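Document type: protein sequence-to-structure record

Subject area: structural biology

Format: plain text, a pair of labelled lines:
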Amino acid sequence: MTQAVYQWVRNLAVYYIVLTALTHIMPNSQYGRYIRYFMGVLLLLILASPLFHLLHLEERMSELFHKKTLEQEFWQPQENEMQAQEYYLQAYEQEVADKIRESLQEITGEGCEILEVRVRMELDGDRRLFVAAVQIWLSGAENQRMRERVENELGESYEITGERLELFFEEMG
């Protein structure tokens, strides 16, 4: 904890050194307001970083950035467009399946084993948005409480609800 506080204070110190250097280096004040604006936004991010870390927003923002990057790469025109789109779609499905598997491990804990996670990405009409259909196989007896918990957590985190999420329980033994 103290290491995190020292890192935060160090970031603030570096920020103020860079801000001071930039204000003295600028030949005229024409760009001063732009630098102050950018540095103000940067200061807000530095000040809010402990809150981001505490609420695990860094991870969520990183996942969202990664998701948007994959979507953008998918829509860029390629020479062999169909193969490229299929490749990106499969990579995207695998990435989403891996993230869901990680989430499931946190949700289920030692309660049951994750046997398989299948993700199928589909385009949602003309909006050019991906919508996931997920099938999950878990070991152990079917438990209504576990089913509801998995559905709620995945619904909140990945916006997968209703008929787009199928849970299968396989009894051990």
